[in-house]
Design brief:
3 copies of one chain form a homotrimer.
Chain A: H1 2-27, H2 36-58, H3 64-67, H4 69-84, H5 92-118, H6 123-143, H7 158-174, H8 179-199
Chain lengths: 208, 208, 208
């Protein structure tokens, strides 16, 4: 019960942070001059695009973000704050955002895998849908900004950390752990992995 | 009955105009040299993409554009005419197109909100899906032309006018007006808003 | 029975070839430096994107690629081989790939039309979904690489060959031929058309 509330709080914090970050990205786009429609649109795509893509792929009813109106409200609010805010480089809020993002990355990956399992899909598709949920929003924002997804280029290991978080969750579930514990393990994996990747500036190399 | 026929006529006119305009856009693309496949493909995405995106998001059965074959036929015809036509700047047909587009913008927004309500969604998601229906086709055409949606940049208030049309419709419905009247009010709002925005060259400013 | 096994073998060969080709494309992208996440991601989009787009449009349950885990495994394997392989220009493997691709183009077009018919859609939407299945993966890969679909530009007649293959299949079905025969005719049309287009360097011209 407490765990559910905590997961829910973290989920909405992740959506808000995603929208806020998406709005900031959109405002400082190098080539396009987005107006407030573009900033809010890209903020909502950043925040909700991963979960919506997952739900469209699962085909198990309308996306959660359209059924539970809190998602739209939280994303809109996060986007509006990002539209109006100025965030100086190295500000404490910027660091807080990185922490929320790190926690949300793991949670989104686990939540995506959970919904895939609940819709009757198997291990490997559930893993893929966990990654999609976690990195899909940012990827769609990039495509709707006229570029390839950044996670395909350098990514600071976003996709790999999301994969690890979903993997730990799925293995823990299959090993018989209860869902709260499995979720917590996945979440901890995602958070730790992301913070370590940031701290030690882990990067992937270009292929080919 | 008469109103339904009128709405339907306007709907298909909007689809034809969208396809025609999409084909012209594709032919004069600044960097890509599209062949007839590209011109027709982008014409169909322009004309039908908004409704298809809405129906995929609602997950309430296959998109209308695949169930009612008239949509494909009208879009194909509009695209073919656009492929073959030459439209000199300032021609009377160009002005007619703007008027049809203005009427279709409001109708598409209202139709999108209507389908969302019929699928059991609430006010705010219905509003968002109304906007998606109205501006989704043009946005997807832009993304499939390798750029960010133009409505994110300057938009000549397309998204805001679509929002107002869907909003007036939804409020009128909730106030107890019957659907034909509510639809007409939404449509009138969209048409007037779009024409005023064109007439007075209303523009949004870049954010940030 | 034998025919079904043959079609299935060809289907998976097409998925593997699509993933392999997608990975090679991603590695030698002119502007982006994709890492292994990007190469594998674009490989999977190339291989499975067309079928997934079709299944999302049909809205007849989750995409085949998520239900039958062999699709993910084959696409991942093809992508991994493409990630690690070097393919010198004019190598025999390159020629084999072209042949597999030519066979897969027709099969994907026919398979897409088949699934559309089975979902209760009519001739014209089934035709469109056949084309979507055949050329959708490459198109989505292009969009997720920040550009317009190449089949919109020059295409070496990909879309037209896919259209012909689906058309021959659909007409044969309507003429009362059994499905195996109709499928074989569509497949042969696609294969022959693609090989002829390559052999004689048939190209479309820019429109407008």
């Amino acid at each position: 019960m407490l765990a559910t509330s905590l997961f829910s709080l973290l989920d909405f914090s992740g959506v808000a942070a995603g929208a806020f970050g998406g709005a900031l990205e959109a405002k400082r786009h190098p080539t396009y001059k987005f107006d407030f429609v573009g900033v809010l649109g890209l903020a909502m795509i950043s925040a909700l695009g991963g979960g919506v893509a997952r739900d469209i792929l699962i085909q198990h009813g309308p996306p959660l973000a359209l059924l539970d109106v809190r998602y739209l409200l939280v994303a809109l609010t996060g986007g509006l704050v990002g539209l109006l805010a100025k965030l100086p480089a190295g500000s404490p809020l910027g660091k807080l955002l990185l922490v929320v993002d790190a926690a949300a990355l793991g949670l989104f990956a686990v939540a995506g895998a959970t919904r895939a399992l609940d819709a009757g899909l198997f291990f490997l598709p559930a893993l893929l849908l966990g990654i999609t949920t976690a990195v899909g929003g940012g990827s769609l924002r990039d495509v709707f900004s006229g570029r390839a997804p950044r996670i395909f280029e350098r990514g600071e290991l976003h996709a790999i950390v999301a994969l690890l978080a979903a993997l730990v969750f799925l293995v823990a579930q299959q090993a018989g752990l209860n869902r709260t514990l499995a979720t917590s393990l996945g979440l901890a994996t995602g958070f730790t992995g992301r913070i370590l990747a940031l701290r030690f500036r882990w990067r992937t190399k270009a292929a080919g």
